[in-house]
């Protein structure tokens, strides 16, 4: 993988802009301090987020978001979710596994992963006809959280399919007295 400052420079070059016009979104975690410093050194702007890394990856495909690139070390499940969503929107992604412990390395070997330094491309992370679905639990930049008014619950969901290129936002209202999905116990 390229160092973050090289990624910023390459993206700026492809877009024909100065690195100061690039906005990198990074999850605000101690593990990202060095990355944040390198991105700042090259002059790019940074949008630090407390959570919502999958939504922020998707935001890179929406010009109105102001986010040009997402960078960071996150969980493998979140990486696969992000790849699935990017398949629909035509984004690009590269990832590699980052191990914190020898136990994690051993589990990877047990799953048949021999090259622990391998770089994975988007289509290796999310193959075939990919369907991505998400429902907001709490309010975020991409989806509204569940709202409850008396016995009525309103949800906000997003469903995307790579093969057809569809992207659907769905608002649903449920009468909890007829179809409960929230357990108050």
Tell me the name of the CATH class of the largest domain: Alpha Beta
Q: Compute the number of structural domains.
A: 2
Shape: globular
Mean pLDDT: 89
Per CATH, the architecture of the largest domain is 3-Layer(aba) Sandwich
Number of DSSP E strands: 9
| Topology pattern, helix = H, strand = E | HEHEHEHEHEHEEEE
Q: Which topology of the largest domain does CATH recognise?
A: D-Maltodextrin-Binding Protein, domain 2
Low-confidence stretches: none
Fraction of helical residues: 25-40%
Radius of gyration: 19 Å
Descriptive report:
This protein has 185 residues and is α/β, with parallel strands linked by helices. The protein folds into two domains: 22-127, D-Maltodextrin-Binding Protein, domain 2 (3-Layer(aba) Sandwich); 132-175, no CATH class. The chain has six helices and nine strands. The chain has helices spanning 4-15, 33-41, 53-59, 76-89, 102-110, 122-125; strands at residues 23-27, 45-49, 69-71, 94-95, 120-121, 131-135, 147-149, 152-161, 166-175. The strands form three sheets. Strands 6, 7, 8 and 9 form a four-stranded antiparallel beta sheet that branches. Strands 2-1-3 form a three-stranded parallel beta sheet, with helices on both faces. A two-stranded antiparallel sheet has the order 4-5. Helix 3 packs parallel to helix 4. The protein is globular. The termini are far apart.
